[in-house]
Design brief:
The structure holds two protein chains of two kinds. By secondary structure, chain A is of the alpha+beta class. Chain A is built from nine helices and twelve strands. Chain A has three domains: 115 residues, Beta-Lactamase, CATH 3.30.450.20; 72 residues; 153 residues, Heat Shock Protein 90 (2-Layer Sandwich). In chain A, a hairpin with a 3-residue loop joins strand 3 and strand 4. By secondary structure, chain B is α/β, with parallel strands linked by helices. Chain B contains five helices and five strands. Chain B has a five-stranded parallel β-sheet with strand order 2-1-3-4-5, sandwiched between helices. The N and C termini of chain B lie close together (5 Å). The chains are: A alpha+beta, B alpha/beta. At the A-B interface, helix 5 and helix 6 of A face helix 1 of B.
């Protein structure tokens, strides 16, 4: 055992009393609220009272319903807020939510809540901290708008460039000599890549802003797989990669947006083809797993090392050592994940380095068909 | 077939005209903004109007609204040509009486066919 460090000559740290604790919380600029397990206000600091435009003395003892009443019309959905908070006071898990609050302007708070326990384990209630994230929300909104406008403005010149190239290559101005044609094809392919990138950025910004409106209707995931295989066929031919569908039986319809579901499968297929060696096959398999339909896109590519498996679903992420070489936008998997989540589903990857990868997504089946 | 094309970008106008007249027999009348489009629609009586959504002064939506409000032009099918892919914009155009949308960047080799398909889908048989 190592010897104890010598005691310092400093006096012992002061023990804070109740008043000191109260003063500490009162001086915090962040609104703080504590509710007991009967949903009454145990404590509310000055910042919270200021937000509610009352004095902090009136708050202790008020019920949650009275508290919400005091907020007037500031909460966009008071009933939902009350119900959610009421359910939280007896929960043991911490939770984070975003709360909208309208005063003379629209405010956003990140609500961080945790159970409050005495040293002997008795649950006293729950502590809520409200961090003002209005500025972050505004910046995020401005970013989304900028992307939307920029993508729109980029489309017009892209129309001129791509249209001119298409017309030339379509023989509009007469027969083209070998190298002239080759150079125009290079320009055309660069143009198409740029358009895909603009579309992808726009899609992702829409999803992130919560503006992606899915047109949900009963649809066959098998049909979606078939359409996507047809879409990607020519691309796969270019890589000399074969495509196969493994679907042993008919499955019930899922509730989905046809075009967006096709986009998910096409993105996953395109990715699998891109990383497959020539001569190999990419297989799409469909199975019913519990109360969901599961689609697996299976490739025999290089596989993904464990440390990169989560990262590849991020924006502008491509496998290390592959960046740029494969001609993708680096947004395909991010969009696939976001779209699957918008459908209430989940996406994941299983992979073995040197053997290949399987991208798996599940979409819930409507309750009556499970 | 006579097409009235309203588009404020001269390059796109030229490109769309080349694409539409490719193969002969189609005539394109060009308007550089909404006001000009309204005047030409009255005078030229086109078979179909291709309307850019975003134009200065009178935009495509306002132009479409006025076309549909006039007895002389209300029956001419309108197709929007737009660089936007916002769902609300499509809905707005259709609500104003447009028969469909074509999106930029358009494929110049397909443009004629796409116009014909939209007309057919709307039950408007093109006159030659």
């Amino acid at each position: 055992m190592s010897p104890r460090p010598p005691k310092s000559g400093l006096p012992p740290a002061p023990q804070a009393d109740v008043e000191t604790f109260r003063a500490l919380l009162e001086s915090a600029a962040t609104p703080v609220l504590a509710l007991d397990t009967e949903r009454r206000v145990l404590y509310a600091n000055r910042a919270l009272a200021d937000l509610l435009r009352v004095t902090s003395e009136v708050l202790p003892g008020k019920t949650l319903a009275e508290l919400v009443e005091m907020m007037g019309g500031a909460l966009p959905q008071p009933a939902a807020f009350t119900e959610r908070v009421a359910a939280l006071v007896r929960k043991a898990e911490p939770q984070v939510e975003v709360v909208e609050y309208h005063t003379d302007r629209r405010l956003f708070f990140k609500e961080i809540s945790q159970p409050v326990q005495r040293a002997d384990g008795v649950l006293l209630g729950r502590l809520f901290l409200y961090l003002d994230i209005t500025r972050e929300k505004e910046i995020d909104q401005a970013k989304t708008e900028f992307i939307s406008i920029a993508s729109h403005e980029l489309r017009t010149p892209m129309t001129s460039i791509k249209g001119s190239l298409d017309l030339l290559l379509g023989g509009f101005a007469g027969e083209l000599a070998g190298e002239t044609r080759e150079l125009l094809v290079i320009a055309q392919s660069g143009c198409e890549r740029l358009i895909r990138l603009i579309n992808d950025i726009l899609d992702l910004s829409k999803i992130e802003a919560g503006r992606m409106q899915l047109r949900l209707q009963p649809m066959s995931l098998f049909d979606s797989v078939q359409r996507s295989v047809r879409t990607i066929k020519a691309y796969a031919d270019g890589f000399q990669v074969k495509l196969a569908i493994d679907c042993p039986q008919p499955f019930p319809d899922v509730l989905g947006d046809r075009d967006r579901m096709d986009q998910v499968v096409t993105n996953l297929l395109g990715n699998a083809v891109k990383f497959s060696p020539a001569g190999e096959t990419v297989t799409v398999s469909l199975r019913q797993v519990e109360s969901a339909l599961e689609c697996r896109v299976i490739d025999k590519g290089p596989g993904i090392p464990p440390d990169q498996r989560e990262r590849i679903f991020g924006k502008f992420q491509q496998m290390e050592g592959q960046s740029g070489k494969k001609g993708g936008t680096g947004l395909g998997l991010a969009i696939a994940r976001a779209l699957v989540q918008e459908h209430g589903g989940r996406i994941s990857v299983e992979s073995e380095v040197g053997r290949g990868s399987q991208f798996i997504f599940r979409v819930p089946l409507p309750p009556e068909t499970r | 077939m006579k097409i009235l094309l309203a588009e404020d970008e001269a390059d796109i106008r030229r490109l769309a005209t080349m694409s539409l007249t490719r193969g002969g027999d189609w005539q394109v009348v060009e308007a550089a903004d909404g006001e000009e489009c309204l005047a030409l629609a009255q005078r030229e009586r086109p078979d179909v109007i291709l309307l850019d959504a975003m134009m200065p002064r009178l935009d495509g939506f306002q132009t479409c609204q006025r076309l549909k409000a006039s007895s002389a032009t209300k029956d001419i099918p309108v197709i929007f040509l737009t660089a936007s892919v916002q769902e609300w914009e499509t809905q707005r155009g259709l609500a104003l009486g447009a028969i469909g949308y074509l999106y930029k960047p358009f494929d110049p080799l397909q443009l004629r066919q796409q116009v014909l398909e939209l007309l057919a889908r709307a039950g408007r048989v093109p006159s030659g």
